[in-house]
Amino acid sequence: MTKKKTYPTETYDITIESINERGNGYARITHPPTRGHMGAGLQVFVPQVAPGDKVRVSVPNAKGRRRARLFDYELLQAGPNRDPEFEFRPDFSGGTPLIAMSYKAQLDYKQQMIEEYLDKVSVSSELVRPIIGMEQPIHYRNKMELTFGVDGSLGMHAQGNYKKVVDLKDSVLATKDMMTAKYIVQRWWLDSNLSAYNKETKEGLLRHLILRQSHQTKELMVGIVANGMPENYEALVQDLSVRLEAELPVLASLLWIENTSISERSYETTTHIISGNDHINEAFCDFTFRIWHDTFFQPNPVQAEKMVSIVEDLIKDKKYNQVVDLYCGIGTFSLPLAKQAEQLTGIEIVESSIESAKRNAKDNGITNAHFICSEARRGLEALKEQWGSPDLLVLDPPRSGAGGKMMRSIGRYQPGAIIYISCNPKELANDLVWLEDFGYEVTYVQPVDQFPHTVHSECIVMIEKKAND
Ligand SMILES: C[S@@+](CC[C@H](N)C(=O)[O-])C[C@H]1O[C@@H](n2cnc3c(N)ncnc32)[C@H](O)[C@@H]1O
């Protein structure tokens, strides 16, 4: 019999100094330990805390280390940045790392992080306007993607552990209808004895549950992503459909999405409509949008409308001949931008998003917008052949940023002005560096909190030609 290893544990009382990029509280132990030999200099990272919280941490085997592994912790005294309503949750999924902080403290944390990243690339904090938060920062997400866990859980991966799925019991992010759908699907799954897909063995059936809900029309999409089709498919999905329809009159699209590839993010899926449409309809700004299960749509429509109106304000008194919307998705920014343009070209890599953008333009009577399905840099290079420098280039890249090659290509293209919409201030800063050599400077930064309770934030950045260039 192997004996379980036990480590000596030291206990320290600490005060959380700050929150790191992953949303964990940071403290450095500055006083002697309660039982012995460690002490000053040891760094600890603690989840679900706010700056100023006093916490007792247990740290195993920390001798000789600079960074402690956290064994256990308890809150001794709440600090001024803690949300007084929040209670510690042992089933924490990691989807909302800032949840213990008051909303004001979350906004301050994001503002400071954005200013620090931009300061590193010489963008003065004086150009950064105060972050725009939400009045009601809960149940704001219009899309949730949950994982079927092999132990019957249906939820998100545990923080730092991609093998473990934490059952989603109560969500501050999902809408109430999404949570109702989650419970119905979970009950149906367990009643039907269907297996969950195991990423390691590549066996098992059910992979993900996609939930999407329109903010304005309330239409709900439920999509089961599976590694194939079960033998008794018809009876199973009929049962699921009856259960969902009995409780959710807003159900507008019920889908079975086959993904038999190894990749979780495969574009080669086959969609079977169980009931309703293959898309839901959203009313957004003055437009209507069709949203399919795999199309990117801004996840927080309340804040996304504010972002569109910020962009509209930046361009409102101008008339542009040619506008490029890079990484255009389904045209969320393209449609309002087209109102100020003679011609607009949207470029996007996902074919279904481009089809959707074309259809959205048509549905909304917009005739001067054209959409190209292409990798962004290739699409831009092809456009250069047709157009001279455009008056305005808007880019809204994924979280990984646009990258140096893309930014240099934009710089060489010499658009009259650039609006960069970013969901990652670190990558934004890395990307902005490249434009300086091409004669551009940042003139305005507006942060928007698109993702309350998470570490993410959005920025709209105006970049113009330097006056002497
Ligand atoms: C942050 S989203 C923005 C979408 C759109 N602007 C909107 O507001 O809905 C980024 C988009 O870039 C697309 N994308 C990702 N990598 C790309 C690439 N290399 N080339 C072109 N588009 C890409 C994604 O499919 C996604 O639609």
CATH topology of the largest domain: Rossmann fold
The spatial strand order of the largest sheet comes to 9-8-7-10-11-12-13
Principal-axes geometry comes out as: globular
The gyration radius over C-alpha positions equals 25 Å
Report the sheet-strand fraction. Answer: 25-35%
**For the report, how would you describe the main beta sheet?**
7 strands, mixed
Tally of alpha and pi helices: 9
The chain-level mean pLDDT equals 91
Q: Provide the domain count.
A: 3
Oligomer, anyone? single chain
Distance between the termini: 76 Å
Describe this structure in words.
- It is a single chain.
- Helix 7 (376-386) packs parallel to helix 8.
- Strand 8 and strand 9 (161-167) form a beta hairpin.
- The chain contains nine helices and 22 strands.
- It has a seven-stranded mixed beta sheet with strand order 9-8-7-10-11-12-13, covered by helices on one side.
- The chain starts with 8 loop residues before the first strand and ends with a strand.
- The protein is an alpha+beta fold.
- The model has no long low-confidence stretch (mean pLDDT 91).
- It has three domains: 9-82, OB fold (Dihydrolipoamide Acetyltransferase, E2P) (Beta Barrel); 105-135 and 293-465, Vaccinia Virus protein VP39 (Rossmann fold), CATH 3.40.50.150; 143-284, OB fold (Dihydrolipoamide Acetyltransferase, E2P) (Beta Barrel), CATH 2.40.50.
- The chain is globular and about 70 Å long.
- Bound molecules: S-adenosylmethionine (SAM).
- Belongs to the class I-like SAM-binding methyltransferase superfamily. RNA M5U methyltransferase family.
